[in-house]
Inverse folding.
């Protein structure tokens, strides 16, 4: 037996045990990208490095064997920095975009490509459900949103950006006009009560999501009718009141209570609210702490001071967002705040504290010139079976000119620019965890179209390959006739099919296992294939 310590814990292991096996047997987790149980070590990613305090050496845990007397550390600053650097090197020539640019630029990060996917397939209800996961008032925003997502759309550069806002309004109004508009499922009542001051876009959105979690919301508003700035500042010609009323009606049907003509600091005091409610949300636009009777509330230049990650104010259990904390007037930002506040309040009501969310990592592709973009468009067309010559570049619907016959065509122009494995990509997850910066070692590598779409189940995007070799070892082990291999040399090495065969021949038996094993979006299921 061989003796060593891992994180000061003494242990004995049989000869031939790797550091990774020894650590995992102790319940110590070590991140890996190129390792897979049952396959020989490849030691290419260097994410699994640990440090031997005796020699000072950094060692790849997946392949280095435990030696007598080693004193291994797996969680020190030096180890953390080495892993971060390994990730930054892998990201330095990575050609991919984790989120579609439209979704990234939407303040609510709505899953726009998924909405388009459903509309194209004629699934209006599913499209609406996709929208309402992040946007509580889609019909209202369909009339008044300044649509920053459309400015981010890839197709803007070549003619007409997708008519995202018109499509969103279409699915939302179809739903409102249907016999049974969509009502999300509501969790069992928690017995917790939330007071929301202000029934404008932030307050309404917060109520929409909090009610779904089972918390009972009461919205207080100084005006006789709910809607805040949506009703009292935007002319009816821009936002029909029937649309506003219909979406407020959905929130009322979820159980939210509205107390009109009730201003905080006048008809009801902060102390009364504190006594009756478990949490308070300030969402009544620009207000002064003194007018609310809340002298303990810290102010900032643009409004109430909050923790920008959690929306907590200086008073425990009191949250604020929308116009109460900033001067901008973008309605979609207020609606997005409402959803984020609901998440914080829900956490607070459940565990008494709000933990700051981890900064999310989304790799961006730099702006493409026309030639690169043309290549990208061709690639996306193959991936998603998108038809279209010039008509791909032309908008066919506008907000005031939508017809059921045209929406499928418009949604069908979408290039689905995000990554096929955003939610499962290990590279992205670890980049987030280790706060890796994709720019640290960034070179001048241009975007290269190198995508294999000639397989019935999967797509291979070589630009997202980190050369972990897993797919190659899998096709070898399962004795594929052709299999996958590394093609090229030096920095230009890329995974491909042996003997230049097509991808279908390269992965006849192993496509699904390769998708599961590939740590990035390089090998992914074709859209729509389960
Ligand atoms: S493979 Fe991972 S890191 Fe690359 S674009 Fe896709 S999700 Fe982002
Ligand atoms: S083409 Fe589709 S996925 Fe790409 S940016 Fe435009 S709307 Fe988003
Ligand atoms: S394509 Fe193959 S070599 Fe490249 S990252 Fe995926 S599994 Fe690893
Ligand atoms: S080098 Fe060990 S997991 Fe990649």
């Amino acid at each position: 037996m061989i003796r060593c310590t891992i994180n000061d814990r003494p242990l004995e292991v049989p000869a031939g045990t790797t550091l990774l096996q020894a650590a995992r047997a102790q319940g110590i987790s070590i991140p890996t990208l190129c390792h897979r149980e049952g396959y020989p070590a490849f030691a290419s990613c260097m994410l699994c490095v640990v440090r031997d305090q005796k020699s000072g050496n950094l060692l790849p845990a997946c392949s280095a064997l435990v030696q007598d007397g080693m004193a291994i550390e797996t969680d020190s600053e030096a180890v953390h920095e080495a892993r971060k650097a390994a990730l930054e090197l892998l990201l330095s020539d990575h050609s991919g975009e984790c989120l579609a640019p439209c979704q990234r630029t939407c303040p609510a990060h709505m899953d726009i490509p998924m909405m388009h996917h459903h509309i194209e397939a004629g699934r209006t209800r599913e499209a609406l459900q996709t929208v309402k996961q992040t946007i509580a008032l889609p019909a209202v925003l369909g009339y008044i949103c300044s649509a920053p997502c459309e400015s981010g759309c890839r197709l803007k550069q070549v003619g007409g950006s997708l008519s995202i806002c018109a499509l969103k309004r279409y699915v939302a109004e179809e739903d409102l006009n249907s016999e049974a508009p969509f009502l999300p499922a509501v969790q069992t009542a928690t017995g917790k009560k939330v007071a929301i001051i202000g029934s404008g876009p932030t307050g309404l959105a917060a109520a929409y999501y909090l009610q779904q979690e089972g918390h009972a919301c009461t919205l207080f508003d100084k005006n006789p009718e709910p809607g805040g700035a949506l009703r009292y500042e935007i002319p009816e010609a821009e936002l029909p009141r029937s649309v506003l009323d219909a979406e407020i009606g959905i929130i009322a049907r979820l159980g939210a209570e509205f107390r009109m003509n009730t201003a905080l600091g006048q008809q009801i005091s902060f102390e009364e609210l504190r006594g009756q409610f478990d949490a308070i949300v300030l969402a009544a636009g620009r207000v002064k702490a003194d007018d609310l009777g809340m002298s303990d509330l810290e102010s900032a230049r643009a409004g109430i001071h909050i923790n920008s990650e959690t929306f907590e104010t200086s008073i425990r259990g009191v949250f604020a967002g929308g116009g109460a904390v900033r001067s901008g007037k973008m309605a979609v930002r207020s609606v997005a705040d409402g959803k984020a506040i609901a998440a914080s309040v829900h956490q607070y009501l459940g565990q008494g504290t709000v933990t700051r969310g981890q900064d999310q990592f989304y790799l961006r592709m730099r702006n493409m010139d026309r030639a690169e973009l043309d290549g990208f468009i061709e690639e996306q067309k193959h991936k998603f079976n998108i038809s279209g010559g010039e008509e791909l570049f032309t908008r066919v619907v506008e907000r005031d000119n939508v017809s059921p016959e045209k929406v499928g065509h418009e949604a069908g122009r979408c290039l689905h620019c995000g990554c096929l494995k955003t939610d499962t990509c290990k590279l992205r997850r670890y980049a987030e965890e280790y706060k890796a910066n994709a720019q640290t070692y960034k070179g001048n590598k241009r975007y290269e179209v190198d995508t294999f779409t000639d397989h019935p189940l999967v797509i291979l995007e070589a630009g997202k390959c980190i050369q972990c070799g897993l797919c190659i070892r899998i096709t070898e082990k399962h004795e594929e006739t052709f299999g996958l291999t590394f093609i090229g040399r030096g920095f230009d090495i890329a995974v491909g099919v042996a003997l230049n065969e097509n991808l279908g021949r390269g992965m006849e038996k192993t496509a699904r296992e390769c998708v599961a094993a590939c740590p990035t979006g390089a090998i992914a299921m074709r859209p729509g294939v389960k």
Notes: Residues 59 and 116 are 47 Å apart (CA to CA). The chain is about 35% helix and 10% strand.
